[in-house]
Amino acid sequence: MGFSDLNLRVLIPYLPMLGWGALRTLEISAFAIALSFPLGLVGGLMRLSDNRLARGIATVYVETVRNIPLLVVLYILFLVLPLYGIPINALTAGVLGLAINSTAYTIEIVRAGFAAIPLGQYEAARSLGLHRLQMLRLVIVPQVFRIVLPTLGNQIVSVVLGSAQASIIGVGELTYETQSIGSSTFRYFELFTIVALFYIACVQVISLLWRLLTGRAAHAPLAT
Amino acid sequence: MLASGHLTNYLLLLLEGLAITLELSLGSLVMGSLGGIVLGAMRSSGWRALKAIALVYIEAVRSIPFVILLFFIFFAIPLMLDLDIPPYPAAIAALSVHCSAYMGEVVRSGIGSIPKGQWEAAASLGLPYYRIMRHIVLPQALRVMIPPTIGVYVSTIKESSLASIIGFVELLGQGMAIREANSLRNTADVLIAVAFGYFAICFSLSQVGRYVERRTTRELRQATEPTRAAIARPLVSGRPETQAVP
Q1: Which one of A83, A202, B137, B236 is at 20 to 30 Å from B14 when CA atoms are compared?
Q2: ipTM
């Protein structure tokens, strides 16, 4: 086969399958993000807390998960948990694996966000007589929020890209559908080109939307 | 060969897999870094066409899941060009492409982090472009680039585990083979051992990175120390430098 044999028309009947796969990709990514962002905030606060145990747990979690491939985490969830009597289907394992992975990175993002706030802000808040929670809520967190927003956008993108690995444990998302269509039509070149373009478009749209949605927050003056 | 038993019986096989993962990663990291330097230089150059090519390459590769990149090289390209690409070259090629795009971005932002004044000062001293790069910009940029470079390396090593799905037997592939040879009885042990293998490589790499970063920033501090001391002394002692202390 050469470039002269390229044929996109063969793939038309398969477009709905690709569409459903794409929706599934966005769905599992959305679930994983919805799980990992709140958990990441909690973990980030744990990493910064004065409590040694909390700090230790968060640090060990981050270091462990960030140094193990996502695919290994997915295999452990999907293949090992059932051995211990915990039934898990591919979809749950996929979402959970992505969430576990993304939480570790989100914790680091949150930690870096807090670290970027000058010490003077904490001292000023304390000297105004704000207690701890007030200080966090009124002074620190609004600033942290603005710092971490762009990085969280990158994190969303990396979850969408990582979700392709869920195909390996059998989650029927875009990459999985692409492979199954490929093995029945043998039109790998056309297929992977289309899907690659789709992922590129998807990532660019997500980054753009995120910038539009958060641009206002990132540039707005802090609450008075 | 993959006969059953406890972890000790197949530990050697896993270590072999670890060595193959190291080899695969090392090859990709070297090629990816070289590619990244070229891409970063293109991105920072004055030529519009070069800039645009590098931008499109970097953005495209960074927006495609690594699995798709790998499948493209392993399934699609051989079909198109009528040639046979075995798993190992396919994996190395995909990992190098992946690594080079991310490294290109690291190099670009490293060079971009050097203030324009440094360029102008060097240029006004009459230094040519390559000497400005070599003596002024790169020594400072490299320091900034250490942490993100380590990040890219760690993520490339982790992505190398995906070579197992196109049939290349590295650490994870070896683990899955052992698991199958034991009719899935030791899934948990093997996978935990594999996870530990990746952890060992990636964690030690980040620790080395942290050490190098500390070392280089300390040198930087020492280099500026005498200057700072010279400025600070008269202020601290409250009297001019030249005055003899009784």
Answers
A1: A83
A2: 0.88
With contacts defined as CB-CB under 8 Å, which chain A residues touch B67? 164-165, 167-168, 175
Whole-angstrom Cα distance, residue A161 to residue A172?
Answer: 15
Average pLDDT, stretch B41-70?
A: 94
| pLDDT number for residue A1 | 57
CATH of domain A3-219: 1.10.3720.10
Q: Do A168 and B64 touch (CB under 8 A)?
A: no
Query: For residue A118, which phi and psi values (nearest 5 degrees)?
Result: -60, 145
What pLDDT is stored for residue B225 in this prediction? Answer: 53
- Lookup result for tokens 């966090």: A136
Exposed e or buried b per residue across A40-54, where buried means at least 16 C-beta atoms within 10 angstroms of its C-beta: bbebbbbbeeeeeeb
pLDDT tens, A13-28? Answer: 888 889 999 999 999 9
- Which residue, among B111, B83, B97, has the nearest Cα to B32 in the 3D structure? B97
A130 class by beta-carbon count within 10 Å (0-12 exposed, 13-18 middle, 19+ buried): middle
For residue A203, give the 3-state DSSP assignment.
helix
> Tell me, what CATH number does B40's domain have?
1.10.3720.10
Domain of B185 in residue numbering reads as: 7-237
Q: Is residue B244 part of a domain?
A: no
Between the alpha carbon of residue A44 and those of residues A48, A92, A112, B206, the distances in Å are 6, 25, 9, 20
Domains in chain B, number: 1
CB contact under 8 A, B71 and A199: no
Q: Report CB contact under 8 Å: A203, B63.
A: yes
**CB < 8 Å from B in window 138-157 of A:** 157
